[in-house]
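Before relying on records like the one below, remember that each one covers exactly one chain. Contacts with other chains, cofactors or solvent are not represented anywhere in the record.
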Amino acid sequence: MKQRTIKTDIGCLNLIEENEKLVGLEFVEGESSYCDDSTLLKHAEKQVQEYLQGKRKNFEIPIFFKGSSFQEQVWNALLRIPYGEVRSYQEVAQMIGNPKSCRAVGNACNKNPIAIVVPCHRVVAAHRKIGGFGGGLDCKQRLLEIENIEL
């Protein structure tokens, strides 16, 4: 496993690679500082920085999920939410064919191991309320602003 910590406008992020795929993008508190120089991690860093600067709408990074089959269904559904749009937890539940699983969808979003690239920030509560986010609500609001999404 290789890791690289990057400094961004929204704080430090830790990129995690395994078998030449991105398996993690985590928000870091404190002084974590990994500096593996793999091609994939440098490519991922560049794309994340471009996204945060409003210069990139889609990521072209190979990813691999490590989760339950339900979580992976949810995370794959998140990848289908277009840039600049949001979906409610209910809508994501419907996307995966399990309309009564709103809370479970919320839990899967909370466990999303590849934040930003797998856009759980595009999922909001009913009536377009911001809902929760692993990186904090201020960070979620900032990501939505980058995509010109107003709630």
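Residues 121 and 140 are 6 Å apart (CA to CA).
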